[in-house]
Design a protein that fits this description.
The chain is built from 13 helices and ten strands. The radius of gyration is 21 Å and the shape is elongated. By secondary structure, it is of the alpha/beta class.
Length: 317
């Protein structure tokens, strides 16, 4: 997920109602954003995976989600359309490990009796992933596939089968899937839809096969347990609920709990407060899904932890 365009769109909308607003965002990697925040160069930074509560406490930080997205498996199979192919986590993990080598393998066919699966080798397209880097698909498979957890942890690094092609960025990833018949890869849902590639239905925790629709992504967030005392450290993979998409993710804001410039801190929180209420269309237009109101209510209650030097909340909601 790339949050810069959404944050800019939200800032443009907010500034029309508040002409003196000075909310700005400079895109950076999560690591650089954290560094700049700790150096007091910025008032907030953005993450695609939450920090642990221990990390937050160590540096006096607070985090909260601000929008949703999702990843989906993507396939390039003749005469197979979006949402037609069905997989569960074990089968997906076995494909990525090379345990399942052919598209007509019985483990795939059992979920897809109405599809004529080709007797062709499966070609895996995967992103380059450094050791120790958590990913959404890695986290999901670590929860559902014991071999994955033991071998790769919650990431995607390590050995891949011989029939795998490694790429270096999201656009190359999508292009490689498009030009490689009989391939399977993964990527953000909007990129799959814009490139007319077939996403896969996945079996969720409730045992239902679901598609990565906005409604199912939102359902995963609504089903999760959001606990401010744990730093909202929630990875939205494999959430309960009949319609929850199991590869949902959230983008997070990271701020300092002690605001050296309370007026700027107040304006920043008012900006998010306004856009939680009114920024849903902008979110969708920038390939995000708005947070459910039940989640934003919990988030706003956490903001009294952001205070000035005297311990007074910068925003009295």
């Amino acid at each position: 997920m790339v949050p810069g365009p959404l944050i800019k769109a939200w800032a443009d909308t907010y500034s029309k109602r508040n002409p003196n607003s000075a909310v700005k965002y400079q895109a950076s990697s999560p690591a650089d954003g954290i560094k700049r925040l700790l150096n007091k160069e910025v008032d907030f930074s953005v993450l695609d995976m939450p920090l642990s509560n221990g990390e937050l406490k160590k540096d006096g930080l607070l985090q909260f989600p601000f929008a949703l997205g999702a990843v989906t498996p993507i396939v390039n199979l003749p005469n197979v359309y979006s949402g037609q192919l069905r997989l569960d986590a074990k089968t997906l993990g076995d494909i990525f490990f090379g345990n399942i080598k052919k598209w007509n393998d019985p483990a795939i066919a059992i979920f897809n009796p109405d599809i004529r699966l080709p007797a062709e080798d499966i070609i895996i397209i995967h992103r380059e992933s450094p050791q120790g880097l958590s990913t959404i698909i890695g986290d999901y498979l670590a929860k559902k596939h014991p071999q994955w957890k033991a071998t790769k942890g919650d990431g995607m690094a390590g050995t891949w089968p011989a029939t795998a092609i490694e790429v270096h960025d999201p656009h190359e990833n999508i292009e490689q899937i498009k030009k490689t018949p009989y391939s399977i890869g993964y990527g953000p849902v909007p990129m799959a839809l814009k490139n007319k590639l077939a996403y896969v239905q996945m079996k969720n925790m409730a045992g239902k096969f679901v598609s990565p629709s906005d409604e199912n992504i939102s359902a995963a967030a609504a089903s999760a347990t959001w606990d401010e005392s744990n730093g909202f450290d929630v990875v939205l993979t494999d959430q309960p609920g009949n319609s929850s998409w199991p590869l949902t993710m959230a983008a997070y804001v990271l701020v300092r709990k002690l605001s050296e410039h309370p007026e700027r801190g107040k304006e920043m929180l008012n900006y998010f407060k306004y856009n939680f209420r009114n920024g849903g269309l902008n979110a969708v237009q920038n390939d995000f899904v708005p947070l459910p109101p039940t989640v934003t209510a919990v988030i706003r209650s956490s903001w009294d932890k952001i205070t000035d030097a005297k311990g007074v909340p910068v925003l009295k909601d």
